[in-house]
From TrEMBL:
Domain 4Fe-4S Mo/W bis-MGD-type: 14-71
Keywords: Iron, Iron-sulfur, Metal-binding, Molybdenum, Oxidoreductase
Species assigned in the record: Verminephrobacter eiseniae (strain EF01-2)
Family statement drawn from the similarity comment of this UniProt entry: Belongs to the prokaryotic molybdopterin-containing oxidoreductase family.
Protein name listed in UniProt: Molybdopterin oxidoreductase
Signal sequence bounds: none
Cofactor: Mo-bis(molybdopterin guanine dinucleotide)
GO molecular function term, any single one: iron-sulfur cluster binding
Record-linked SMART domains: Molybdop_Fe4S4
C-alpha cells in the first residue's frame, strides 16, 4: 500500500493521508484517510499508532458518510423566515462577513461584553477549537465563556488534590491486577481504553464497574456496583474507612507524599460501610469486598471518568476517589494509581495560541455555558452587566446539549438576539441562526491535537479540499478580523502556522509530519516518589486553597440538589448517558447510525415500569416542572430500581416530539468547577 504524504490530492493513484480524530473522546485516535481522485473513500485507524492500533469506533468509521452527507452546509446562509424556522437563503461570503462584522461593530461600540462566543469540543483541535477564535474575541473584548459543560468539576477536583490533570499512563492499565472502572462506560465511550482493560483481564486481572446503569461494560466486568447516582463520595469514604480499619495502608507513602492525613482519617472513620450502603443503595458486603480487593491487590488501577461529575457533589466525589491510591501507595507501580484526564501533561502554549494579551485591560465578564438558558433571558443589570445581544456559536449545539432546553430555546428565539452559527449541518441550534456559515470537517483542514486519555500529540493534515464554499473555523475568524479592521499580526497566522505554534520546540514537528503522532516523554510511574504538581508537592487530602475559599478542605459526600424522596410528584432519578452510536449530538443525522439507535430510549426497571403500566416499546412521557419529552421505553435490568436512563443526546427535531432529554435537566451547578448537573435530575414517567 502506498503511504505517500504528498499534498497533491488530485492524482489518480490512491493516497493515504495521516490525520487525527477530532471528536470529544479520550482516545484521540490516529487516522489514515484513503483519497482517490481528490475524494476521501475510506477513514481507518492508523495501525502504526499503538493506542489506535488500526481500530476505530463505529461512528468515526462512518466519517466519510458524515463529511459527504447530502445535507452538508456548503454555502453561507442568511435567515429568511421567522426566528427558529430554519428558513435561509444563500449569500456570498463577502456579504455574510460584511453584515456580521457590521452588526458586531455596532454592538461592540456600545458594549463589547454584549457579544458572547459559545463553543465546546465539536472538534478537539487546538487550531479549529481554541486559537484564531479566541484571538478574535479577546481583541473584541467580548464576554468570556466558562467552558463547564463536561469536565470542569473533575478538573478542579484534580487541581485541588493531585495538582493538575495528571495520572497513570494509559498503556499500563494492561498490567494492572485490579481495575476499578468508575463512572465510565468505555465499551460505548472510549473503546481503546477497554482494549487495555481486556488485556489485563486476559492476564487474570479483576475488573469492577461502579455505575448506576448496568452498561455493556458492566456486563463484561467481574463485579458491578450499581450505586445511586451522586453517591460516589460516600462509597469512596467507606472504602477509606475499611482501608484504615484493616490497616491496608502504605504508611510510608502517606507520611512522605500526602497532606492532611489525620484530618482525612477522622472524616473517613465516620463512614462505616453500613452508612455508605444506606446512602449508595448497595449491599454492605459488596462495599467490604471492594475495599478488601482494593486494599490487598497490587497493582490496582482506577479509571475514573465523567459519570459522577454531573451531580451537585461531583467535585468532592472526584477528590475522594483520587485520594485512594495515595492511601495504599498504589502510585508506586506504573500499573497503579488513577487516570481521569491526562490533558495537563501536554506542554501546549495556550497563551501563544489564544493571545489573552489582546484583551482589554479591564477583563471582560465570564458567562457560564451551562446556564446559557437563564443568561440569554437576563436583562441588563448591575450584577450581570449588559444583556447578551449577539452569540457566535461554533463547535457546539447548545439547543440540544445544554440543560433545561426550554429556556435555551426561549433565549435563542429572542427576536433581538443576533446569532451566528458555524456548522457542518443545520442542527437544532443552526435553526435559530441569523447567519449560518459552512465549516470544514477534519478531512478538509489542518489541526493539531492533544488527548485527555493518552499522552501523544497528533497532527491532522487535510486529506481533501474543502467541500463547496466551506471554510475552516480559523479562516472564518481570520476573515472576520480582517473585516473588522483588526491589524495585529496575530490575525495573519495561517492554519498550519498555528499548528506549529501550538507546541513550539516542545515537539519535533518533522516527526509529527512523518508519522502523524509524537509521544511525550514522561515517567512510567509519575508519582512513585511523590512530586505532585500541587503547591505542597504532595497529594493534598486537605486542600488549604479550598479552605481559603470558605469551602470544606476535605472531601465529603454532598447529597444531590434533587434528592430522591424529596419530591412525591417526581420520584425517579434520571441519568442521561450517551447512546453508543452518537457522540453527544454529533452523528444523530447520520442515517446508518440513527438506524441502529432507532428512537430515543428510556431504560426503566421492571418494578418501576409495572407500577406505571409501562411495557417495553411503550411510548412514554418523561416530565418534571421544567418540561417533558417523549421516548420509547425499554423495560430492562440495565436500569436500577428508582433510576431511569434516558439515553442521549438526540437532535430535538429528529426525536419523537421535537424535544430531547435536556428538556427536563436543570441548570444548577456542581460544588467545584461550576459544571452542569445533568444527572442530578428527578422526573416522573407515564405512558404518553
Ligand atoms: N459513543 C459515545 N462516546 C463518547 C461520547 C458519546 O456521546 N458517545 N461522549 C464523549 C464525551 S463528551 C465524554 S465527556 C466521554 C465521557 O466518557 P465516560 O464518562 O466514560 O462516558 P459515559 O459513557 O458517559 O460513562 C459515564 C457512566 O457513568 C454512569 N453514571 C451516571 N451517573 C453516575 C454516578 O453518579 N456515579 C457513577 N459512578 N456513575 C454514574 C453512566 O451510567 C455512564 O455509564 O465520552 C466520550 N465518548
Ligand atoms: N443530558 C445530557 N446532556 C449532555 C451530556 C449528557 O451526558 N447528558 N453530556 C455533556 C457533554 S459531556 C458534553 S462534552 C456536551 C457536548 O456538547 P457539544 O460540544 O455541543 O457537542 P456536540 O453535540 O457533539 O456538538 C458539536 C457540534 O460541533 C460541530 N462541529 C464539529 N466540528 C466542527 C468544526 O470543525 N467547525 C464547526 N464550526 N463546527 C464543528 C458538529 O457538527 C456538532 O454539531 O454535551 C453535554 N450535554
Ligand atoms: Mo464531554
Amino acid at each position: 500500500m502506498s503511504m505517500s504524504l504528498t499534498k497533491d490530492t488530485t492524482s489518480s493513484a490512491p493516497i493515504q493521508v495521516r490525520g487525527a480524530c477530532p471528536h470529544d473522546c479520550p482516545d484521540s485516535c490516529a487516522l489514515l484517510t484513503t483519497v482517490e481522485n481528490g475524494v476521501a473513500t475510506r477513514v481507518q485507524g492508523n495501525p502504526g499508532h499503538p493506542h489506535t492500533d488500526g481500530v476505530l469506533c463505529t461512528k468515526v468509521a462512518r466519517y466519510t458518510e458524515r463529511s459527504y452527507h447530502a445535507e452538508r452546509l456548503l454555502v453561507p446562509l442568511r435567515r429568511s423566515g421567522p426566528k427558529g424556522s430554519g428558513q435561509f437563503v444563500p449569500v456570498s461570503w463577502d456579504q455574510a462577513l460584511a453584515d456580521i462584522a457590521g452588526r458586531l461593530q455596532a454592538i461592540a461600540a456600545r458594549a463589547p461584553e454584549a457579544i458572547l462566543p459559545y463553543s465546546y469540543a465539536g472538534t478537539m483541535g487546538l487550531v479549529q477549537g481554541e486559537s484564531m477564535d479566541r484571538r478574535f474575541f479577546h481583541r473584541l473584548g467580548a464576554s468570556q465563556l466558562e467552558r463547564t459543560i463536561c469536565a470542569s468539576a473533575g478538573a478542579e477536583a484534580l487541581a485541588q488534590t493531585l495538582g493538575d490533570k495528571v495520572g497513570m499512563k494509559l498503556e499500563f492499565f494492561a498490567q494492572a491486577r485490579l481495575i476499578l472502572i468508575w463512572g465510565s462506560n468505555p465499551i460505548g465511550s472510549h473503546l481503546h481504553f477497554w482494549r487495555y482493560a481486556q488485556q489485563a483481564k486476559r492476564n487474570g486481572a479483576r475488573l469492577v464497574c461502579i455505575d448506576p446503569r448496568k452498561t455493556e461494560t458492566a456486563d463484561k466486568c467481574h463485579e458491578h456496583l450499581a450505586l445511586r447516582p451522586g453517591t460516589d463520595a460516600a462509597l469512596a469514604l467507606a472504602l477509606m474507612h475499611e482501608l484504615i480499619r484493616n490497616d491496608w495502608l502504605d504508611h510510608d507513602y502517606i507520611a512522605r507524599h500526602t497532606l492532611g492525613w489525620q484530618a482525612l482519617r477522622e472524616r473517613a472513620l465516620q463512614w462505616t460501610p453500613e452508612r455508605a450502603a444506606d446512602v449508595c443503595g448497595l449491599p454492605v458486603a459488596q462495599i467490604r469486598q471492594l475495599a478488601r480487593d482494593y486494599g490487598s491487590t497490587r497493582p490496582a488501577a482506577i479509571r475514573l471518568n465523567y459519570g459522577m461529575q454531573r451531580v451537585r457533589g461531583a467535585g468532592n466525589a472526584v477528590r475522594a476517589v483520587v485520594c485512594l491510591p495515595a492511601l495504599t501507595g498504589a502510585w508506586r507501580d506504573p500499573a497503579g494509581g488513577v487516570l481521569l484526564s491526562s490533558a495537563g501533561q501536554f506542554p501546549v502554549r495556550r497563551a501563544v495560541l489564544q493571545r489573552p494579551d489582546l484583551m482589554p485591560a479591564r477583563r471582560p465578564r465570564s458567562i457560564n455555558m451551562s446556564t446559557i438558558g437563564d443568561d440569554l433571558l437576563r436583562p441588563t443589570s448591575a450584577s450581570f452587566g449588559p444583556q447578551i445581544e449577539a452569540v457566535i456559536v461554533y463547535n457546539s449545539n447548545p439547543v440540544a446539549v445544554a440543560p433545561e432546553s426550554g429556556k435555551v430555546v426561549q433565549g435563542f428565539a429572542r427576536e433581538d438576539l443576533f446569532t451566528v452559527v458555524l456548522e457542518h449541518f443545520q442542527t437544532d441550534t443552526a435553526d435559530y441562526a441569523d447567519y449560518l456559515l459552512p465549516a470544514t470537517t477534519q478531512l478538509e483542514h489542518w489541526d493539531i491535537h492533544l488527548s485527555y486519555g493518552h499522552t501523544d500529540i497528533l497532527l491532522n493534515r487535510p486529506a481533501i479540499a474543502p467541500l463547496g464554499q466551506a471554510r475552516s473555523n480559523a479562516r472564518i475568524f481570520r476573515d472576520l478580523a480582517a473585516q473588522m479592521g483588526f491589524a495585529e499580526p496575530a490575525f495573519a497566522d495561517q492554519d498550519e502556522q498555528l499548528c506549529r505554534q501550538a507546541f513550539g520546540d516542545a515537539v519535533d514537528y518533522a516527526r509529527l509530519q512523518e508519522q502523524g503522532f509524537a509521544t511525550l516523554e514522561l515517567p512510567d510511574a509519575p508519582f512513585a516518589a511523590g512530586g505532585f504538581p500541587t503547591p505542597s508537592g504532595k497529594c493534598e487530602f486537605f486542600s488549604a486553597r479550598l479552605a481559603a475559599q470558605g469551602l470544606d478542605g476535605l472531601p465529603d459526600y454532598l447529597p444531590n440538589h434533587e434528592l430522591q424522596g424529596s419530591s412525591a410528584r417526581h420520584p425517579l432519578a434520571m441519568i442521561s448517558p450517551p447512546a453508543r452510536h452518537f457522540l453527544n449530538s454529533t452523528f444523530v443525522n447520520v442515517r446508518s447510525l440513527r438506524a441502529i439507535e432507532i428512537e430515543p430510549l428510556l431504560e426503566i426497571h421492571p418494578d418501576d415500569a409495572q407500577a406505571r403500566g409501562i411495557a417495553s416499546g411503550s411510548l412514554v412521557r418523561v416530565f418534571n416542572d421544567r418540561g417533558s419529552y417523549h421516548c420509547r421505553a425499554s423495560v430492562s435490568h440495565r436500569a436500577r430500581p428508582g433510576v431511569v436512563n434516558g439515553l442521549g443526546i438526540w437532535w430535538r427535531k429528529l426525536g419523537l416530539n421535537g424535544t430531547n432529554v435536556n428538556q427536563v435537566t436543570g441548570q444548577a451547578l456542581t460544588d467545584l468547577g461550576r459544571a452542569a448537573t445533568f444527572y442530578d435530575c428527578l422526573v416522573q414517567v407515564a405512558v404518553a
